[in-house]
Amino acid sequence: MTETTEDQSAEVVLRLTDVVKTFPGVRALDGVQLEVRAGEVHCLLGQNGAGKSTLIKVLAGVHRPDEGQIEWLGQEFAPANPQAAMRAGIATIYQELDLVEDLSVAENAFLGHEPRVFGFVRRGYMARHTREILGKLGHAEIPPRRLVRSLPAAGKQVVSMARALSHDARLIIMDEPSAVLAHDEVANLFRIIRGLTAHGIAVIYISHRLEEIREIGDRVTVLKDGRTTAANLPARTTPTRDLVSRMTGRTIEYVFPEPAPEVSGAEELLRVEGLTRSGEFADISLTVHSGEIVGIAGLVGSGRSELLETIFGARRSEAGSVRMAGKHLRPGSVSAAVRAGLGMAPEERKSQALLLGEPIYRNVTLSTFSEYSRVGFTNVGREVQEANRIADRLDLRPRDVRRAVRTLSGGNQQKVVVGRWLLGDTKLLLLDEPTRGVDVGARAELYRVIRDLAAQGVGVLLVSSEVPEVLGLADRVLVMREGRVVREAPAGELDEETVLDLVMAGSLQVEEVTI
């Protein structure tokens, strides 16, 4: 672990020493060290799965650490819940903003600590005080009584900051705050952050974008596999190569099955040409052949998930074409995609792919349900029989397909989503973050399932934030950045550092960057 001795005069407001947090099957934090000073922007850097999300949830009072010590303003700190953390002066702005869309700006700013007199909410005071806070943030034009749902993404982010300041926050944690912002909105975000730090408020800024860290950050701490691999590095002058190298070399074991021998002359299943959706991705062309696994690496916001959804017909393209086995697919039609042999396992399986209260068999047969229904009656026995066949094929555990799918682990829920498409005539499977929320042991099982499908001739187009996963599973890799493919190569010709450099900075040759 490397430290710098720069700027030791400011007060240390937060210090973590050897913090550990364990979940079933994974040690998410493994002795984390972190020091944050008043009035600084402290950047937290690390790959997906490095422990950043768990760390901020520990600070926010969502999780309690199992070991280690947290000091806040010089005192031992262990918030029992998020409300306690807010009262202590630590506010967290998550990437998915936790605002109530149908409440006003002022009601969101004071949510959970509304000022009252004799039990009645002081709405006038809330509006006046919210207006003052918005003025300090440089956004006096936002009406306090306006409904949050009517605001753009940048405006909603300002409301989240106003909520933090309504609690007199001394530390604001920002998780990928620029992911949904346009370039000019990012510049305004940085202006607001500088205004906050000028008043002594500390900011923990989490981002994958190295150019942002160079511009807004003071110091950087790097996490890898739940450990601190570098602490308090100068944000503006630390070489890019140093930052990237401290993020790589995972200790978590990725157990990949042996790839099948390459088959020459395999049938082309999917051809995408010039596919475009404004603000999401542009001019994307790719192919997937029978039995081939093609991986897409890229950060959140790079357009990778939107690309998969557009290929599947869940979004309508504005330009370009999608062909399956040489036949043009109608844009924006999921049913046309399914009939052509496409299946998709989306990133948010619980909200987008599963009926959590329904039994496993009903979730497995969902995409082919019409085959089990005749004149208003459903052949449940046949549904169960087919689901049992899929459960055996995918080694689903537990095997009881009549139990509710919500009772399964994350890995087995994902098997149900994949298994659904094995009942139909699926030729190409689109997988978006297939192992998100899945423990290490279940990952190996899912990797085996994906490899087995490819060996049977199914094509796979895979999106993952886990660079080792893309490189270990895919035969060929496309790297996306800001909505465009910046590199395509066989997986064996790429390594983790190269891919990270392409998705984050594009300039590993730059030894020092200053602003």
List keywords for this structure.
single chain, alpha/beta, Rossmann fold, six-stranded mixed β-sheet, 17 helices, 24 strands, disordered C terminus, ATP binding, Sugar ABC transporter ATP-binding protein, repeat, ATP-binding, ABC_transporter-like_ATP-bd
How would you describe the overall organization of this protein?
The protein has 515 residues and is α/β, with parallel strands linked by helices. It folds into three domains: 1-78 and 170-176 and 194-252, Rossmann fold; 90-168, no CATH class; 268-357 and 425-504, Rossmann fold. The protein contains 17 helices and 24 strands. The strands form six sheets. It has a six-stranded mixed sheet with strand order 6-9-10-3-11-12, with helices on both faces. It has a six-stranded mixed sheet with strand order 18-21-22-15-23-24, with helices on both faces. A four-stranded antiparallel sheet has the order 2-1-4-5, with no helix packed on it. Strand 21, helix 15 (440-455) and strand 22 (459-464) form a beta-alpha-beta unit. The two termini are 25 Å apart. GO terms for molecular function: ATP binding. Residues 14-250, 264-507 form the ABC transporter domain. This is Sugar ABC transporter ATP-binding protein. It comes from Phytohabitans maris.
